[in-house]
């Protein structure tokens, strides 16, 4: 949550560029409560849209369907993001591909909305850090999109639900060879086998030597 809040705060403090693919202009809404704007946009994926084992590769196309609605406090953004995922199966390490669909909703407050609660010491710093503000008429969707995508990712992606994984002894992919196995001695007999070998070695050491076997005998 701290990382989530920090990114939102960075978005609040940053100066927005209206040409950026994830910056949207809300001027048409005109601060009229109930005013609505729907739009679709294709944008290149930014970095950090993923976790270690799966994610949206930087630069691929992300399809956005958005609903921007003017309310008393600001602009409510509701949307869906669709993008291809690439990663690897956590069981067999084979590459995998998926289609991501992530829903999100976020309120962007007007810069001058409720200044007293914005700057007063309310004691609820976490709530203040989670608040996003419009910069003029512009809003930056990037931190919201990043959080929505990452939170929608599977933490343990698999190529199929019944993936058997890899052989613990040799690393072979078990799905390619369902009958794969290694012959192993029964551990219940391993101790007895070791004892028998030790007794056999002892008998050899204690066996009487034939005349002439002792190199010191003349």
TrEMBL record:
InterPro entries: YceD. Residues 201-218 have a biased composition (Basic and acidic residues). Residues 195-218 are annotated as: Disordered. PANTHER family: LARGE RIBOSOMAL RNA SUBUNIT ACCUMULATION PROTEIN YCED HOMOLOG 1, CHLOROPLASTIC. This is DUF177 domain-containing protein. The lineage of its organism: Bacteria, Bacillati, Actinomycetota, Actinomycetes, Kitasatosporales.
């Amino acid at each position: 949550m701290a990382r989530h809040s920090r990114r939102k705060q960075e978005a609040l403090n940053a100066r927005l560029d209206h040409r950026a693919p994830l910056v949207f202009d809300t001027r048409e809404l005109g601060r009229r409560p109930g005013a609505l704007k729907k739009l679709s946009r294709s944008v290149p994926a930014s970095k950090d849209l993923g976790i270690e084992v799966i994610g949206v590769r930087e630069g691929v196309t992300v399809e956005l369907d958005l609903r921007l609605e003017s309310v008393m406090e600001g602009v409510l953004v509701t949307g869906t993001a669709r993008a291809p995922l690439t990663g690897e199966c956590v069981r067999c390490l084979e590459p995998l591909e998926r289609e991501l669909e992530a829903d999100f909703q976020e309120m962007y407050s007007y810069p001058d909305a409720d200044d007293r609660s914005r700057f007063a010491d309310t004691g609820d710093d976490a709530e203040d850090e989670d608040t996003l503000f419009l910069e003029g008429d512009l809003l930056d969707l990037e931190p919201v999109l990043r959080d929505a995508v990452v939170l929608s990712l599977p933490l343990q992606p698999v190529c199929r639900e019944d993936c058997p994984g890899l052989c613990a002894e040799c690393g072979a992919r078990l799905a390619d060879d369902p009958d794969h196995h290694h012959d192993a001695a029964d551990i219940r007999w391993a101790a007895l086998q070791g004892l028998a070998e030790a007794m056999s070695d002892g008998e050899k050491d204690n066996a009487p030597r034939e005349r002439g076997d002792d190199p010191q005998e003349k």
